[in-house]
C-alpha cells in the first residue's frame, strides 16, 4: 500500500514538471501573442535625422535628430548641432502614448514600412545626405535613407511624422 502512494506521488511530480515544461515552451514559441499590442505598428522607437536643417531660433543650419522611445510615457530627445564639429543642444520632453499610435497609422496608411530600405541587405545603396528615418518594431526595423526613392504620398507621410514629433516638443 505504501509503495502505491509513493508511485502515485512520483508520477504526479513527473506530470507536473512535464506540464510546466510544455507551458514554458509554448510561452516562448508564442511570445508575440503575449506581448502588449498597444499600437497599430507596435512601434518601440522612432529616430529622425536631418542634415542642413534650418531653424530660426537660437540655432540655424546644421544637424538635427529626434529620438522617441516607447515607455509608460514616450521619451523624446531632440539634438541640434550647428555643424558636425559643434556642441550639441539637447532638449528632452515627454509625450502621451497616442503619439506612436498616430505615427503607426501614418506608416500603415502610406506603406512606409515597405518603402524603407534595409542597409544590411543592400550595402551598395548610397544613403541620402539630407534625411534619415528609422523605425524599430518588435520583429523588424526599417530605415528610409533615400528620399529620392519615395513617392509623393510617402514623402508627405514622412513630413507628417516629423511634424508630429516636433509638435510634441511644444
Radius of gyration: 24 Å
Helix content: 25-40%
Residue stretches low in confidence (pLDDT < 50, at least 5 long) are: none
Whole-number mean pLDDT: 77
Largest sheet: 6 strands, antiparallel
Shape: elongated
Task: Quote the beta fraction.
Answer: 15-25%
Q: Helix/strand-derived class? A: alpha+beta
Number of helices: 5
Give the SSE string.
Answer: HHEEEEHHEEH
How far the N terminus sits from the C terminus, by CA atoms, comes to 78 Å
DSSP strand count = 6
- How are the strands of the biggest sheet laid out side by side? 4-3-2-1-5-6
Task: Produce the secondary structure layout.
Layout: H1 2-29, H2 31-34, E1 45-50, E2 63-69, E3 74-81, E4 89-95, H3 98-110, H4 112-115, E5 131-136, E6 141-144, H5 152-167
Antiparallel strand pairs: 1-2, 1-5, 2-3, 3-4, 5-6
Structure characterization notes:
This protein has a six-stranded antiparallel β-sheet with strand order 4-3-2-1-5-6. With 170 residues, it is α+β, with helices and mostly antiparallel strands. Helix 3 packs antiparallel against helix 5. The termini are far apart. The chain is built from five helices and six strands, in the order ααββββααββα.
Notable characteristics:
single chain; about 170 residues; alpha+beta; 5 helices
Summarize the structure.
With 170 residues, this protein is α+β, with helices and mostly antiparallel strands.
Amino acid at each position: 500500500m505504501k509503495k502505491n502512494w509513493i508511485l502515485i506521488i512520483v508520477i504526479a511530480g513527473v506530470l507536473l514538471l512535464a506540464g510546466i515544461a510544455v507551458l514554458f515552451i509554448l510561452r516562448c514559441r508564442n511570445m508575440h501573442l503575449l506581448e502588449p499590442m498597444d499600437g497599430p505598428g507596435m512601434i518601440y522607437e522612432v529616430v529622425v535625422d536631418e542634415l542642413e536643417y534650418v531653424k530660426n531660433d537660437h540655432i540655424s543650419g546644421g544637424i538635427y535628430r529626434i529620438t522617441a522611445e516607447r515607455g509608460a510615457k514616450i521619451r523624446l530627445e531632440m539634438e541640434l548641432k550647428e555643424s558636425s564639429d559643434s556642441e550639441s543642444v539637447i532638449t528632452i520632453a515627454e509625450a502621451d502614448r497616442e503619439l506612436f499610435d498616430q505615427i503607426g497609422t501614418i506608416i500603415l496608411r502610406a506603406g512606409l514600412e515597405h518603402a524603407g530600405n534595409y542597409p544590411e541587405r543592400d550595402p551598395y545603396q548610397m544613403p541620402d545626405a539630407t534625411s534619415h528615418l528609422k523605425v524599430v518594431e518588435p520583429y523588424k526595423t526599417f530605415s528610409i535613407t533615400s528620399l529620392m526613392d519615395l513617392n509623393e504620398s510617402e514623402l508627405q507621410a514622412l513630413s507628417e511624422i516629423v511634424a508630429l514629433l516636433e509638435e510634441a516638443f511644444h
